[in-house]
Amino acid sequence: MSDAPKLDDLSRKLLERAAPGRAQFEDLVVVPVFAVIVALILGALTMLATDVDLPTIGRSYVALLQGSVGSLNAISETLTAAAPLVLAGLGLALGFRTGLLNIGAEGQILMGGMAAVIVGFSFPGAPFVLLMPACLIAGALAGAAYASIAGYLRAATGAHEVISTIMLNLISYRLIDYLLRQPWIQKEGRADPISKSVPDSAELPRLLEWIDPNLRVHAGVFLVLIAVLVVYWVLFRSKIGFEFRASGESPDAARYAGIRSGLIIVAAMAAAGALAGLAGANQVLGVLGRATPGFSAGIGFDAIAVALMGRSHPFGVLLAGLLFGALEAGGRQMQVDAGVSIDLIGIIQALIIVFIAAPLLVRAIFPWGFRGSDKAKGPTP
Amino acid sequence: MTEVVETASPKVSKIDTREARQAKIVGTVLIGLALFTGLVFGSDISGNATFRLSRPTDPWALPNLIVPAAPFNYIVAALLAFLGARQFLRGGVRWTSLSLGIGLALVVMAFLVWATADKAFSLTGMLQATMVRAVPIALGALAGVLCERVAVINIAIEGMLLAGAFTGALMGSLVGGWGGLLSAVVIGGLFGFILAALVVTYRMDQIIAGVVINLFVLGLTSYVSSQVFAEHRFLNNAPVFRSWKIPILGDIPVIGPMFFNQNLFVYGALILVATATYYLFYTRMGLRARAVGEHPRAADTLGIDVYWTRYVHVTLGGMVAGFGGAWFTLGSVGRFDENMTGGRGFIGLAAMIFGRWHPVGALMAALVFGFADSLQQKLALLNTPIPSEFLAMSPYIATIIVVAGLIGRARAPAADGKPYVKE
Predict the structure, then answer these.
(1) B112 shares its domain with B192
(2) Please, which residues 51-70 of chain A have a Cβ atom closer than 8 Å to chain B?
(3) pLDDT tens sequence across B145-156
(4) What is the pTM of this model?
(5) Domain contains B123
(6) Whole domain around residue B364: which residue ranges?
(7) How far is A121 from chain B (nearest CA, A)?
(8) Is the CB of B228 less than 8 angstroms away from the CB of A50?
(9) Which of A25, B59, B313, B423 minimizes the number of CB atoms within 10 Å of its CB?
(10) What per-residue string of b and e applies to A327-362 under the rule 16 or more CB within 10 Å gives b?
C-alpha cells in the first residue's frame, strides 16, 4: 500500500499535472465503477437480510438495468430523471467551488418552478417562442433571487450560508403551500393545493412523441447540455470563474489579490440559485405541467450528492446526474417488477458516494489494484 | 470590505465595519418591527387578553393574567422603536445582541396579546408543549456541539435522529421500552462511530460523510419500513414512555408542568445539557476536547490523542442523537414512519450555531423553535387572520435575522471541519 513515494504536496501536484496517467484513470473510471459494483453487492446483502429470496434479488437487478437503459422508454425515463439533478447539481458545484456550502437547492427549485408556473398560466395566449423562454428565465431569476438572500447575508453579516439556506428551504415549503391556496394560482374548482396548469405553449416540447406518446424525454435535455457547457466555460475559462475558484481555494489570498469577496459570494449564490431555479422550471414545464406542494421531491438534496460525486466538475456532475437518474428510473421498474421497495436505491446511492468520496477507505478494503495516491478528493466545500 | 485591505490592521477594522453594519441592520429590523407591531397588532383590537396560568384543579392555582390589549401593544411598539433607534446612535454596536433578543421577545408577546384579545388562552399548556417539542431539537443540537467542539462537523444529525427513531420503534416492539431506548442509543453511537471512522481515519470530507450517512439512514429505514413493517405490523408497535410528575415540584404553577411533569426524554435532555456543560467547560477532559477542536496540532504536541478524542466525542454525540431520535417513537407515538424526523436534525444544527456552540445556548435556541412550533398549533384554535403558513415560517425568519444579527461575533471552533493528519 505504501509503495507511493513520499513526495510533498507541491511536487506531487506538479507530477500529476505533468503525467495525468494512471492516477487519473483510476480516480475517474476505476473507482466509480468499483463503487457502483460494491454498492450493488451490498444492496443485495441488504435485501437478503430483509428476507428477500435470491431469485427475486436477481430479478430486481435485471429490472434495475432494464428500467434504466434497457429500452428506449427506459433511456427516456433516465434522461428525464437526470435533467433536474444535473441542473441543480451544477449550481451546487459552482457554490462548492466558491467555498459556499449551499444546502438550499430544494428551496430554490421550488421558487424557480413556482415562478415558471405563474408566468406560464398568466399569459396563455402568448406564442411558444416567447412564453417558454420567458418561463425559463422567470424560474432562473426567482431561484437566483432566492439564493441571493443567503449570499447577501453571508457577505454583509457573515451569517453562515448553511443555516440561512436550510431556513430558506423551510420557509419556501410554507410559502409554496400558501401560494397554492391563493385563488389566482389555485386551479379552479379544486379544494386541494394545486396550481393552474401551464398552457401547451409554455411546455418544454417532448422530443420523441412521434415514436411513442409515452416517451417523456423533453427539450430540457438540451437545456442541461447547454448549462453544462456554460458552467464549464464560466468556471474554467472566464475571469469571474477564476475569481469563484480563487475565493473557494483561499479566501484570504483572493481578497488580497483584489477580488471583491462579498460580490463574488453573492454572484456565486445567485448563479447557483439560477441553475436550481432552472431545474425547478424544467420539472414543471417538462414533466409535471403544474405545481403541487413539495413538487421538488427531494431533488435539491439528491443534487448535493450528485455535485459531490461529480467532484464539482461540470462533466463529472453530468455523469453523476445520469447515474443517479438511471438508478431512479431503474428503481421504479424494480419496484414494479420485483416488488422491492425503491428506497433500496437510496441505500445504493449512499454507498456509491462513500466509496467514491473516501479513496482511503476503498484502499483499506481492497489494498491491491489501487496505487497509493494520496489524492483525497476534489475541492472541499 | 475591500477598502480595509490597505489599512494597517485589516482584521480589526474589518470586524468593526461588519459589526457596525450588523448594528444598523438590526436597528432597521427593530424599527420595522415597531411599525408592524403598531400598525398591525396595535390597531383595531379591543378588550383584554386573558392568559390562563393554571388549571382550576391545580393545588396552587394562580389567577388568570389579564392584559389590556391595545395599550400593551402600543407600549411594545414604542419600546421597539426606541431599541431600534438606539442602534443607530453612538455605541449602538454594544447593544446589538441584547436589543435583538429583547426586541424579538417583545414582538412575540405583542403577537400573543393581539391574537388572544377578547379571548382566553392557556399559556401553561403552550409552555409545556414547547418543552416537549424542543427535546429532539435540543438533543440534536447537543450532539452537534459535542462533535463540533472536537472539530468534526456533523451534518448527519438528521440521519442519527432517524436511526434512533427507527431502532426505538423496532427494538421497543421486540423487547420493550427500555430495551428500545438502549438500542436506539447504541445505534446512534454506532453511526457516530461510523462518521468518526470516515472522517478521522479515512479522511473523507466531513460534509460528504454527513450527507452520505443521512442518505443511507433514510434509504435503509424507509426500505425496511416499506419492505418489512408493512407486512409485520407487530414489529412497529412500541410502548410509549408516559410522563412522570415529580412530586411537589410538579405542582408549582407554570414552571411545574413545563419542567417537572414530563416524560423521560425531557428530563434526559435537561440532565444531558447540564452534564455536557459541566463536562466541556469545567473538567480536564472537556478542556482537552476543546483544545482538539481549536488547535489539534498543539493538543497533539501536549500528548492528547487527537484521533481518540475525536472518536470518543463523535460517538458520544451519536449516542445523544440516538436518544433524541427515540423521542419520535418511544416518546410520542410508538410507531415509525418514513422520514418521520422531517428535518429536525437540520433545525438542531441551526440551533447549535444559534446557541453559539454551547450546550445551554443550544437548549435555549431549541426552546425558541419548540415555542414557535407549539405556538403555531395552539393558534389554530384562536382563529387569527394571519395565514398559518406565515406563522409556521416565522421561527425560520427569526433564525435568519438572529444569525445575521448575532453570529458574526460567535465563533466556531477554529479547526472545525478540517481533518487532522498526524505527522
Answers:
(1) no
(2) 51-52
(3) 999 999 998 889
(4) 0.82
(5) no
(6) 128-399
(7) 24
(8) yes
(9) B423
(10) bbbbbbbbbebbebbbbbbbbbbbbbbbbbbbbebb
